[in-house]
Amino acid sequence: MDEILFGKSKKEPEFYRALGCDRSSSIEQITAEYRARVKYLHPDKLDEADPKKHEEYLQLQSAYNTLSDESERSCYDAWLDCFLPITYEEFKRNRDLVKVSMHWITPRETPMISSSNAGAQGGPVEPDSKHPLRWESGRYNSDAVRRFRNYEL
């Protein structure tokens, strides 16, 4: 439960690690790393009695098939960013449902509040300037306002 509430995820980028790449690698880099690694793990070159090497080969195949396809790679990256403690296969199977429930996690491209002219032109607003969005503390210093605030009216 803490994983979900506090954003802790124990997901490891296994496909990237299997290929010796990272998320910023291009498809050409992924293909080159795959070809360099698959030479040593191909079933024709291995002894059939070694099931560990066969498992590594299958994982390498799965990693390459996922990361070489743009849509599959974006789905895998979305799974890595998702804080739900589910496997990649579950995430892929329920991709549309997870996308609907996780839409709020995507950052906005444009800021919701634009900067004011004074801040954009060179720093903070000076204390004595008459900026339209600045609070004027002396504006409401009258006896009537004081009595109103103290519930005397």
From TrEMBL:
<dbReference type="Pfam" id="PF00226">
    <property type="entry name" value="DnaJ"/>
</dbReference>
<dbReference type="GO" id="GO:0005737">
    <property type="term" value="C:cytoplasm"/>
</dbReference>
<dbReference type="InterPro" id="IPR036869">
    <property type="entry name" value="J_dom_sf"/>
</dbReference>
<dbReference type="InterPro" id="IPR029827">
    <property type="entry name" value="JDP1-like"/>
</dbReference>
<protein>
    <submittedName>
        <fullName>J domain-containing protein</fullName>
    </submittedName>
</protein>
<keyword id="KW-0143">Chaperone</keyword>
<dbReference type="InterPro" id="IPR001623">
    <property type="entry name" value="DnaJ_domain"/>
</dbReference>
<feature type="compositionally biased region" description="Basic and acidic residues">
    <location>
        <begin position="127"/>
        <end position="136"/>
    </location>
</feature>
<feature type="domain" description="J">
    <location>
        <begin position="14"/>
        <end position="80"/>
    </location>
</feature>
<feature type="region of interest" description="Disordered">
    <location>
        <begin position="111"/>
        <end position="136"/>
    </location>
</feature>
